[in-house]
Every structure is written in C-alpha cells, then in structure tokens.
Specification:
With 137 residues, the protein is an all-beta fold. 0% of the residues lie in helices and 53% in strands. It contains no helices and 13 strands. Strands 1, 4, 5, 8, 10 and 13 form a 6-stranded antiparallel β-sheet that branches.
C-alpha cells in the first residue's frame, strides 16, 4: 500500500498494486490486504482501504499542530479517496467488488475492469465508502 504524499494525479506502483491518485487527494492512505492468508495476488478475498483525511468530530489541535488540545468525539469524519487501484492477480476466477459500510456490510456491486491479469477498481466518494471488498468467484 501507500501512505503519505501520493502525488497530484500521479501513479504509484508496488510489486502487486498500483494506485493512481486524483489531484484532489495529494495525501492519502491506500492499502490492500488479503483476507484469506494467501498472497495478495492469489487471494480470493481482498479488502482495500482508502482515506485522504480523517479526524474526530470537534477535534482541535494546539497552535503548532503537534498535539491535540481536544481529541473530539465520534463520529470520525473521513474524506474518501478518488482515484484507481490496480491489483495484479494470478489464477482463474471472476472478480466482483463492493463498497463496505462501517459494519462491513456490502453495498451494491461496483464496476471492475479485468485485463491481462490486472483488475482495476475506481475509487470515488460517490461509492459512499473508503472500504472495498474484492472477491474472486
């Protein structure tokens, strides 16, 4: 995954994952994790987490932004990421992707492009989540 300055519309690549950011998200955290103890590229269940900014409601920093004066309260306010995640996969199977709510419940299936062993998932605040599940059938 990638955490920190991800660029303004730039592409970041690791061995099994590529993230292309939208200019509105120069700072983000984007992680992909296998949920079935298999390597990411062979997994039948992957969760993708993507967030640009998170803070508690009414959270207040000190004047130098080095400590919290007030940690605030729930709910956590989250700016969801816009961009694309591409995972290099091996093996057979049909893939599906779903946004997940705060309890892990699936939303409506999302468009997923699969080409030459790579699947691409568009990330968007319109998906209503920063959490996504990718399932190999």
């Amino acid at each position: 995954g990638f955490v920190g300055f991800v660029g303004e519309g730039e592409k970041r690549a690791a061995s099994m994952m590529t993230f292309t950011s939208d200019p509105r998200n120069p700072w983000a955290g984007v992680l992909a994790v296998s949920l079935d103890n298999k390597p990411l590229n062979r997994s039948a269940r992957v969760v993708v987490f993507a967030a640009a900014k998170e803070e508690n409601t009414d959270q207040v920093f000190n004047a130098t932004r080095t400590a919290l004066k007030d940690p605030g309260k729930l709910p956590v306010m989250e700016q969801w990421v816009k961009g694309t995640v591409t995972l290099k996969m091996v093996g057979e199977g049909k893939f599906e992707a779903y946004p997940l709510n705060e309890s892990g419940k699936r939303g409506k299936a999302l468009p997923l492009t699969v080409k030459d062993g790579a699947l691409t998932l568009p990330l968007s605040p319109k998906n209503g989540s920063g959490y996504y599940e990718i399932v190999r059938k």
